[in-house]
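Can you please make up a whole protein chain along with its backbone structure tokens because I've never seen that pairing?
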Amino acid sequence: MDKLWAPWRETYLTQIIKKTKKCVFCKILKEKKDKENFIFVRTQHCFAVLNLYPYNNGHSLVLPIRHVDDLSKLKAEEQADFFNLLNHVKSLLSEVLHPEGYNIGMNIGKAAGAGFPGHLHIHIVPRWKGDVNFMPVVSNTKVISQSLSALHTQLSAAHKKKRKI
């Protein structure tokens, strides 16, 4: 069986968790500095943010505004908003980045690999053929082709044009 190891991600998770006693997602929501925190969509019950430590260009998170740790704790209107925003973010990423596929998933609970188990979130990772190359293997380096600031600007503009959500 092949294994995919990403040990460098554990370092950033433990450093962030040690530095931040409160929930990092609730913190950035309260700051209302969306551009600086890379939040590119807010809805009534949810928001979308670029991952600061992306697996790939465009790696985004969709989260409920309310601090809950499991899907079962979302109210019906929060669930609808959560999945509607997931679809909306996927369409924005398609429009801006034109990926050939997506990895979409949740890690619910520490045992499942959730880096921030207290605040439910879903990952959306755009994928392209050949986006995994030799760099992580030979130099422990992942190449991300675009800055978070530039991508935030593009996704925010695309959202303002659509505004279906």
The chain has six helices and five strands. The radius of gyration is 16 Å. Residues 21-162 form a domain with the HIT family, subunit A fold (CATH 3.30.428.10).
